[in-house]
Each structure stands twice: as C-alpha cells, then as structure tokens.
Amino acid sequence: MKPNGTSLNTPSNGAASNGIHLNGHKNGHATHGLSDELVDEMGDNHALANLETPLRPDAFDLDDDLKIDLIEAHFREIMTILGLDLTDDSLKGTPRRVAKMYVNETFKGLNPANKPSTTLFDNKYQYNQMLVERDITVQSYCEHHFVPIIGKAHVAYISSGKVIGLSKLNRIVQYYAKRPQVQERLTMQIADELKRALQTDDVAVIIDAAHLCVSTRGVNDTASSTLTAAYSGKFEDEATKQEFLKYVGMAKPTM
Ligand SMILES: [Zn+2]
C-alpha cells in the first residue's frame, strides 16, 4: 500500500538528501485540512475509538535498519527547516541518534516481535490471594505531542491456578509503554494482556503518570498527574478493589 502524502523513499534518494524537501506538501495539510485550533483541542481529548494502537497494514514491511535510515533523513529535514546548521559538530549526529532511539527504544513496543513471551507456571503454593506488583516504572510517549509520559503502574491479579514470573509483569507494562500512547489505552492494553497471559479475568491496573505535554508546554502545570484504572473480574467487587488500593497506598481514608 502506498502511503498518502508521505514519501517512503529508499535511502538512495531519501537519506542522502541534505537540502529541504517538502515532499507531499501538495497533497494538503498533514492533518487533512483540520484547523490548528481543532488539532490542539483533539490533543487534549482522549476519546478512544479502539483498544488497538492504530497501525498501518504495512507497519512492518520495512525492516528496522531501513526505518532508521528514513527517519534520520526526515528528522534532518525537520532540524534544517527549523534553521539549525547540521554541519555543527554538536548537531550533526542528532538525526541518527533520534532515529535509533525511536526505533530501538522509545517505540520498540510497536513491533509484536518485541512482545515479551510469557510462560505460565502452576501455582504450586496454592496462593489464592491477590498478588500486587506496585511502582512499576512507566516511561511512555504521548501520541498527541511526542513527548514523554512518566509515572508508575500498579498491577494485580488473582491466580486462576497459574502464575507468571514477577518480572514479566514489568515487561508487559514496558512493552505497551514503548509506543506512542494515550494513558487510557495503555492501561487497557496492559489489563488485556494480563488477562490473556494469566488466563484470568481477575486483574487490576492503575497508572499514575505525569505528561510532559501538560508540564512543559500548553498549560505548563508541573504538579498534576493523571490517574487511570482498569478493574475486571473479582476486582470489580468493592472489597477486593479497596484491598488493592490499600496495598498501593490509594485507599479511601477511613474515618
Ligand atoms: Zn500530549
């Protein structure tokens, strides 16, 4: 499928360019004619159409090395358009560094090939209480502004007879975080994967995170954080939910 308005040139003509190319500008505004004001507002509106990350059908037709070469060329253009002198020693490696960071680190979780494999073990101890893994580091990227979302996730499950290695809980969080995200979708994707991996509906996920698009631009609020939660199965039961919230330090204060 041919991308619309973008040029997926091979590096032979794309990555080698030093000048400014405004490829695709004739095809109209990148946001298909929406006003700047509306685009800003949509960046604050977290209406979710779908639990799945919106990916193109040809998302993985290009291999990672080619993606890095192409992103490098395009990022060089962005810097050039901003007026930066890419012959400067400090700047000249930046396009490649950013491209490698996007593909190998920041957005690594887009590729299903990087999904952590989970092995189920029998719950030998017959431990049938909830297991809570709290304060899991969340480092994600806002898909509306391409700046970081940084915070913590608390996840819990009640074993259906099977358990997974504890570090897998962290890895599942990390995998879905390493994508352009909105926090609501990230929360639900983690909950869904926990249900699938643990073969139970009894899971809970809370994410408490600061969005750099809120703290470093726009409203510039450095104090606020955003909380999202997904409860299913036994965690929809108020007593179970409160027990989980107590363990993660978020329970209602009792009078
Ligand atoms: Zn944002």
TrEMBL record:
Cross-referenced SUPFAM superfamilies: Tetrahydrobiopterin biosynthesis enzymes-like (SSF55620)
Record field: compositional bias (Polar residues): 1-16
Any one of the GO CC terms: cytoplasm
Keyword Nucleotide-binding attributed: yes
Stretches for region Disordered: 1-33
Positions contributing to Zn(2+) binding: 142, 145, 213
Subunit-level organization: Homopolymer.
Descriptive protein name: GTP cyclohydrolase 1
Source species taxonomy: Bacteria, Pseudomonadati, Bacteroidota, Cytophagia, Cytophagales
